[in-house]
Amino acid sequence: MGALNANVPAQVTPTAVKDIIETELLVSSLNSFINMAYAVTRPLAGNLGDCGSGDTLEQIMLLLAAHFVTLRERTLKSESVGGEWSASFMGQDGLGLNASLYGQQALALDCSGNLAKAGMKQATFQVADYAQLADLSDV
Fold it and tell me: Is 85 helix (H, G, I), strand (E, B) or coil?
């Protein structure tokens, strides 16, 4: 699982992820997070907004990999000592990609909004007419 998927763009590397987020994770772990970012973006690749830059998809993939790092390492967001110790970590404020600044930035780079919609379940509604409801009342 530590090898990088051969289809991942050349610009998306463990070194590039470390340029975004400070981490001591091994290259094999970073490769796994990059592979996950690729798996998330692959179905959306032709549908993500360009926002005026040809490398938007690669930037989104890097930010998603950094997002996955924060979920693994529980990045400290704030702490206080004033008589009592307390700490808060990234990932406690939101769900999904909103759980980290990196995930939020990835969402912001996608002009199409398709990344935000990717994890949402779609609902369908069917309207019954009065005759169908009347048939149910006999049951």
Answer: coil
